[in-house]
Amino acid sequence: MKTGLLGGLVLIGAAVSALAETPAALDSRPNVLFIYTDDQSHRTLGSYLEEGAWPWVRTPNLDRLAAEGVKFSMAYGSSWCAPSRAIVLTGQQPHAIQGIDLNRDPTSRRPWATLADGYDPAVTPMWPRNLRQAGYDTAMIGKWHLGQNAGHGDLWDHSVVWDQNTPEGDWYNDQSLSIDGAPAEVVPGYSTLVYTDFAEDYIRRDHDKPWLMWLCYNAPHLPNTVHPDTRDDYTDVEVPIPADWYGPRAGKPTYMRTLTMFEPDLEGRPRYGHRSWRLEDLIVGYNRLVLTLDEAMGRLLDTLEETGQLDNTVIVFTSDQGFAWGERGYAWKVGPYDACLRMPLLVRYPPEAVAGGVVRSPVSIADVVPTILSYTGLEVDWPLHGRNLRPALQAPEAGVEGRVLIEHFLSSFGPQIKTAVTDENNFTRTIPWWLAIVDGHHKYIRSLVPNEIEEIYDLQADPDEQHNLALNPSHRKLLEKMRSALIEELEATDAHFIDSIPAPREINFQP
């Protein structure tokens, strides 16, 4: 098997039939509980205090996961929800994913990305299908967000799907859910707890083979529709306001110099949206949503323990990406900055994962796929773009070799990117397409706009990404190194649009 990351293409040969012929081996493989939240910053967990968590957050059950497993302190998601989910299901970067065409549907009540006709497994391979064939029972519960075909009976033996486009209910109350492929019907209750009910029911089933459950919460995505039990929490906390919520910002690309998603009130403090919400209130509400998530984590851990499955289950907790709250002017994801992208990543599996271990190397959502496949013994016959993190779980202090590649093409995939990289509409978007790599403690950002400046940040010395080293003559060699590193990562993952990347602005480094 050839391994590596985005810095080394992972080619894994097929061995599904061999696994299927050895039931005894199947029985010894662990279960996998893959918990996936939406827009959750790493700063919402008490265990990430060293990484900048709000000091008043309380997440005892998630902190238990960190204490009993391994925490990845620099974990990066994709730039947006749908691409992140596509990476998780295929193990590939968006530029390599074929057969997914997410276009906005103007006839929908909520014009989110939809895919009415589903996908072709021969064109868009997704590993849960192979895992079913290899003897695992598979389940998907929660937010789907990759079109109207969620793959019941193909990817999943059991499914409880919210496709985000149904007219009934909302993000948090009385959602319309499709259960095991049936027409969607309203299921009363608060979605975070409803998904947990379904998940507990699945865990308690009489399983005769190992199982995978992909549990996709829509919390803590806006709107901040909090559970009644959390409405009075965090009432008196002090919420700091990022200094750069309002421009101008020196040393940033053109679109970033004045970008802000807030308006100042009469006191000059940031307010967001047509309802003019105070930023402080939004941050508090956001973390109230996480309180209910944390309650759900406690329930899941208790259920696994009660059923004797806790220590034979690989628990992966992460999100699709982070979420900025005022930093660089964002109240969103999709920006190339850590505040927008960094998420929690916790892995608990006592036979291997070192309790309380911390991995400080940068890792990616793409790395989760080969890691899960390693535990299940599954090998697939298409290229994966992530690294197997299993060795780092056994020796966290050794870290992870290689770089992290992150790309922002919004909802475009595969060949759509090649034809659209030089589309002038890309350049006129509020947040244009971009590419980024994180190599050690340096991040390089390349805006896909002609004649635009590049960005390099030392994330160790400058975690708020204020000082663009790409403009500093003393860092010219670093700039050349990072430029080359980006091309290497793109070549390693067969990105056919390399020759279409617009040239950056040339900087005169002469004294």
Tell me the Rg in angstroms: 22 Å
End-to-end CA span: 50 Å
Helix content: 25-40%
Going by helix content, strand content and strand pairing, the class is alpha+beta
Name given to the CATH architecture: 3-Layer(aba) Sandwich
Characterize the overall form. globular
Number of strands: 22
Oligomer: single chain
Q: Specify the biggest β-sheet.
A: 11 strands, mixed
What is the class in the CATH system? Answer: Alpha Beta
Q: Uncertain spans, ≥5 residues at pLDDT below 50? A: 1-26, 105-117
If helices are DSSP runs of H or I spanning 4 or more residues, what is the number of helices?
Answer: 14
Number of domains: 1
The CATH homologous superfamily is termed: Alkaline Phosphatase, subunit A
Average pLDDT, all residues: 89
Strand content of the residues, in percent? Answer: 15-25%
Which fold does the CATH topology refer to?
A: Alkaline Phosphatase, subunit A
